[in-house]
């Protein structure tokens, strides 16, 4: 693993030096090591109780969620492991056992 800081745009750890700049090969963002990282524009994801969420967390569903285009339901208390946070209305990408890949809203989960 490199000793370079993660990309401030996409949080990729595959950054490298190019001259006096750091470069992210995944999103193409370039920045200087001396440049302060803007944390104000970084989205903050919180669960239904206001607890901050991070990539890789385990969460629990707090209400029955109907699955669009299906008669299936994600039941209350379903644990979802290794979430991935994304921008958008449905801000959690995950895989639910027995159902498959799904997007959830952070307002319908709590950190486990």
TrEMBL record:
Residues 32-54 are annotated as: Disordered. Residues 46-112 form the Protein YjdM C-terminal domain. Residues 4-32 form the Protein YjdM N-terminal domain. Residues 39-51 have a biased composition (Polar residues). This is Alkylphosphonate utilization protein. It comes from Idiomarina zobellii. It comes from the Bacteria. Belongs to the YjdM family. InterPro entries: YjdM, YjdM_C, YjdM_N. Gene3D superfamilies: 2.20.25.10, SH3 Domains (2.30.30.40). Pfam families: YjdM, Zn_Ribbon_YjdM.
């Amino acid at each position: 693993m490199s000793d370079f800081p993660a990309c401030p745009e996409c949080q990729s750890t595959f950054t490298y030096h190019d001259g006096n700049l750091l470069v992210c090969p995944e999103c193409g963002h370039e920045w200087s090591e001396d440049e302060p990282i803007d944390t104000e524009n970084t989205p903050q994801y919180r669960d239904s109780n206001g607890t901050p969420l991070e990539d890789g967390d385990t969460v629990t569903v707090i209400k029955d969620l109907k699955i669009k285009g299906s008669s299936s339901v994600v039941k209350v208390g379903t644990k979802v492991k290794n979430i991935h946070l994304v921008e958008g209305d449905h801000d959690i990408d995950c895989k639910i056992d027995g159902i498959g890949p799904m997007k959830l809203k952070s307002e319908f989960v709590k950190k486990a």
